[in-house]
Amino acid sequence: MAEDNSKKSVIPIQLIVGLGNPEPKYDQTRHNIGFAAIDALCRNWQISLAENRKFQGEYGEGIAPGGEKIRLLKPLTYMNRSGQAIASVANWYKLPPESILVIYDEMDLPLGKTRLRLSGSAGGHNGMKSAIAHLSSQNFPRLRIGIGKPKNPVTGEEKDTVSHVLGKFSAVENQLMSDVLQFVVECVEVSLKQGIEKAMNRCNSYTVSSSE
What burial class does residue 53 get, using C-beta atoms within 10 Å of its C-beta: 0-12 exposed, 13-18 middle, 19+ buried? Predict the structure, then answer.
């Protein structure tokens, strides 16, 4: 019976947020892969976003696979203040943190890897620090998309992280990331239909590789 009760207490995802920076110069950068993930969801679910000043971001609503209403958000507050936009939507619709899925880039994961978790710390990510601060909770699901660590091709040592995260993917990496984003859509759809924990089994064990 206890297991059944835990299933009933699971809160469905009602808001999906992708982290990134506004302005054209940040388009297609590694740090904006959260924005790209929201764009991929919009294409697959035929949801359009529009700037919403009240929510400090690009916002849209629609029906997700499974038939439930879903809200999508790309904060326009810049990465370090992402939590302001997330909290404005959460407060307006009275959404508990557990119903908010945040998608963002992760240097500690290689390209092709994704990691889905129900909760956790910011792990040094400024966008997540802001989200946790404004939601006053770490207990919300997050999907991290690997962007790899910057390496010097000669020495193999790590290079400047700022220029790495704000840099653009190479042509080869872009092909791979296109496949990764389709996998992200799949992971999110499994999360919505079957729950985060079911989706974790799929998302966290699979590596997207170049389709050549």
Answer: exposed
